[in-house]
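Supplementary Methods. Inverse-folding protocol.

Structures were first reduced to a discrete structure-token string of length 462. This string, shown here, constituted the complete conditioning input.
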């Protein structure tokens, strides 16, 4: 076995200085030759551990073998047997902590670039082949309502549509896709790709109703009793921002990451001719250490910030963001102020942000998350000038569904209680999955929850 077997084929990317000024996708994708070469590294294990690491159980060795043989369209179809959104997953899933970490090759070198190959196959089919819509089973007369068109809801909708269910997805916003369209920037996930993936589901027979707020336009009970839905799946996500609860948080120029990214992504404020208002600060501070914080800081840079700074209360080792996102942010010139925490946002006499006061931190004993707890260092406060502050410390579930569905059990954090193994809630024929159950997590985990709940609906209704 030669040494090449242990090295990934790297994916070409836009130059950091160039990409920091545009919203085009950063990784450029594999060529056919690069994809084949990477696919040929796969050992084709008889009992592939990589599959056990995938929440939707993609047939990883099988689709990779097809790529190695140049059968790209067949590879895409193989992916879609278990994953309704492969072009999305290939871009935003944390493969490095799920499927790739279990790759046998990682014991001696670098694992197979499963995510890059997934993206390649999905992109190749979209650009070069007729997308074949699989045959669906005859209609079974059962109506399923899906709350939210994010990854959990879309996955469940696709699974059930193939089985003959009449599926309607209710989306509160004017565009389908949930966090895929409002939360993740264009340079990480082009929205045209999300639209194509949703279009595929519509061709399977999924109906999508936009501008429909379940809990307000109609409640879960009304959908079941008056509209005749046999079951409801709640996949409404975690779109309610958490706040820092410090003085000055209501100043002009303070955004939640949710609002900031929604304005830029969904409402197209990043386009030069956009009429969507967004403050294009010269010195922007983003508070947080997750992927959303990286997305916010990198968006600020592209919107013209001369300095885009991350402030995070722990060290880099504790950052929840993907390594690739941290790496890309550093390459683009994002500054990292680690082990410090904001205590106040400073405001000028007109109510605008003029700076942020922080205190230095040190790491103490591990907390319930397993990460070392940050402890303030007395007398270490300092001030940073800035004109925009983005709060990216996390999101919580919106309370609308729990508040309008009184017989559904919730936790003290406002999440819906659903059995992890089957997606069932305390309310008969109501299922839930994704961030509304787990709190803010990953796209692929939400998709896995959608698949699990779909299986339960089939068991309960057929």
């Amino acid at each position: 076995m030669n040494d090449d077997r242990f090295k990934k084929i790297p994916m070409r990317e836009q130059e950091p200085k160039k990409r920091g000024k545009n919203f085009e996708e950063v990784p450029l994708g594999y060529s056919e030759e690069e994809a084949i070469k990477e696919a040929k590294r796969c050992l084709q294990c008889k009992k592939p551990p990589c599959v056990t690491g995938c929440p939707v159980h993609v047939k990883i060795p099988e689709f990779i073998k097809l790529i190695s043989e140049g059968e790209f369209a067949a590879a895409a179809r193989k992916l879609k047997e278990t994953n309704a959104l492969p072009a999305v997953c290939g871009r935003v899933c944390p493969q490095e902590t799920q499927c790739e970490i279990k790759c046998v090759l990682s014991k001696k070198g670098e694992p197979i670039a499963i995510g890059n190959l997934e993206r390649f196959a999905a992109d190749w089919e979209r650009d070069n082949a007729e997308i074949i819509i699989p045959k669906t089973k005859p209609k079974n007369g059962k109506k399923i309502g899906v709350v939210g068109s994010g990854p959990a809801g879309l996955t469940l909708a696709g699974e059930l549509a193939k089985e003959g269910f009449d599926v309607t997805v209710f989306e509160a916003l004017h565009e389908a896709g949930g966090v895929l369209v409002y939360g993740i920037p264009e340079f990480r996930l082009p929205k045209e790709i999300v639209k194509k993936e949703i279009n595929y589901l519509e061709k399977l027979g999924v109906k999508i109703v936009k501008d429909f707020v379940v809990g307000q336009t109609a409640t879960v009970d009304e959908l079941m009793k008056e509209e005749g839905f046999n079951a409801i799946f709640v996949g409404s996500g975690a779109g309610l921002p958490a706040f820092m609860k410090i003085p000055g948080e209501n100043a002009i120029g303070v955004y939640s990451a949710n609002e900031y990214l929604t304005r830029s992504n969904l409402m197209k404020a990043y386009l030069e001719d956009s009429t969507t208002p967004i403050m294009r600060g010269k010195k922007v501070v983003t508070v947080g250490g997750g992927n959303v914080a990286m997305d916010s800081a990198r968006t600020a840079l592209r919107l013209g910030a001369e300095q885009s700074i991350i402030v995070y209360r722990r060290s880099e080792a504790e950052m929840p963001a993907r390594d690739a996102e941290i790496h890309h942010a550093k390459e683009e010139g994002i500054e990292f102020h680690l082990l410090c925490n904001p205590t106040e946002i400073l405001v000028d006499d007109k109510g605008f942000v003029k700076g942020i006061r922080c205190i230095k931190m040190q790491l103490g004993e591990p907390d319930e998350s397993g990460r070392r707890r940050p402890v303030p260092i007395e007398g270490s406060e300092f001030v940073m000038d800035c004109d925009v502050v983005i709060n990216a410390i996390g999101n919580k579930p919106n309370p609308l569904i729990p508040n309008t569905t009184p017989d559904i059990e919730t936790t003290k954090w406002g999440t819906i209680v659903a059995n992890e193994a089957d997606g069932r809630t305390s309310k008969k024929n109501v299922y839930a999955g994704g961030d509304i159950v787990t709190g803010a997590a990953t796209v692929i985990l939400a998709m896995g929850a959608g698949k699990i709940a779909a299986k339960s609906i089939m068991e309960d209704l057929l």
